[in-house]
Amino acid sequence: MSENPLIPMGQRAKEAARILANASTETKNRLLHTLADGLKTHEDAILAANARDLEDARAAGLRDNLIDRMTLTPARLENIASDTRNVALLPDPVGESFDGRVLPNGLRVSKRRTPLGVIGLIYEARPNVTVDIAALSLKTGNAAIMRGSSEIRRSNMAIMTVIHEALEKTGLPQDAVQYIEDPDRAMVGHLLTLHDYVDMIIPRGGAGLHDYCRRNSTIPVITGGIGINHIFVDASANLKQAVPIIHNAKIQRPSVCNALDTLLVHEAVAEGFLPKVVERLGRDGVTFRAEERAYAIVGDDPAVSPAGPEDFDTEWLSLVLGLKVVSGLDEALEHIRQHATHHSDSILTNDWGNAQRFLDEVDSAAVYVNASTRFTDGAQLGLGAEVAISTQKLHARGPMGLKELTTYKWIILGDGHVRP
């Protein structure tokens, strides 16, 4: 078997991670502010590169929701820069001591947060992820090796120029953030087996990418980011409040993983409420897939069609919404158990007992009461940004911010102690 061609990249990343682990908080924060400023300075070049990527994507017939994910605008670029500055303002978790105590024998023990080391990230058509990954990795003293999709190669390389310029200005090694330019899909497999140098793999993309990484990686993998998300409208819900929440969850940005996919409505309010939902969301181009009871109420609307057998197991990532009438909380919970991907689910209710049951029994990374699922986002939840949204249970769950990119070591302080 030939030698892994990414070994030199891994070696450089591991050495850069050693240097980063000892960088001061002040240095890392200065780096992030320099990076944010560089995004503005190089805005024209980044947007020009992105425009060429989008032109090729349209010519290749890529779906509208994918093109939306690929698209950078001055406003989106400014938001990315703002998120980077917010990461700089957050407390640095590296070096934090916690769970400290003195044992009966006098040993003083605690845990201290440390960087993971080198993170390998494989992601699809979202150039903002390149900056998010760099900002969070660098703030936590981790090096990063990235592999983005070929559709956004020009955008990513323009952004990498800014990242490397910021590292150089701050006196930190440019190898702290590296990008695999080779478009050969074999490079993904090579990264997944770079276990002597990479400490964690984080994929961001569709179910196929996540499954491929789980099956082929010799490195621990954090998976998630695939959301079949639900809102259940309880009989006691404030229905005037419910329509704007549902509208936001579906419309605000339908192509992302925390957007709403299925609306469950209590039978006691369905007849009066579902037509309002269809009318309001239909104005924004939403079409609906309704199960039998929901179709009997709103099926005369041209935007509504009967739900097929796979519709409630589909992450739409577009202006499509599943509708289902349920007999109550029990049926809603059972539907979510059968069809959810453990990402984001919400109940709209004024019955705190039902709200508490929903919080207790829905096994998702983010569970809401009377709020849109669109808040499952690192910046929205006070993390500054996120490197991924984990839907698994080991190490991290939900939006992965700074603390989720650290591990810890045990610190034991003695005074001549020997074990009896």
In words, what does this structure look like?
- With 420 residues, this protein is α/β, with parallel strands linked by helices.
- The protein folds into 2 domains: 7-222 and 400-413, Aldehyde Dehydrogenase, Chain A, domain 1; 229-375, Aldehyde Dehydrogenase, Chain A, domain 2.
- The protein has 14 helices and 16 strands.
- A 7-stranded parallel beta sheet has the order 10-9-11-8-7-12-13, sandwiched between helices. A 4-stranded parallel beta sheet has the order 5-4-3-6, sandwiched between helices. Strands 1-2-16 form a 3-stranded antiparallel beta sheet, with no helix packed on it.
- Strand 3, helix 6 (128-139) and strand 4 (143-147) form a beta-alpha-beta unit.
- It is globular, with a radius of gyration of 24 Å.
- The mean pLDDT is 94.
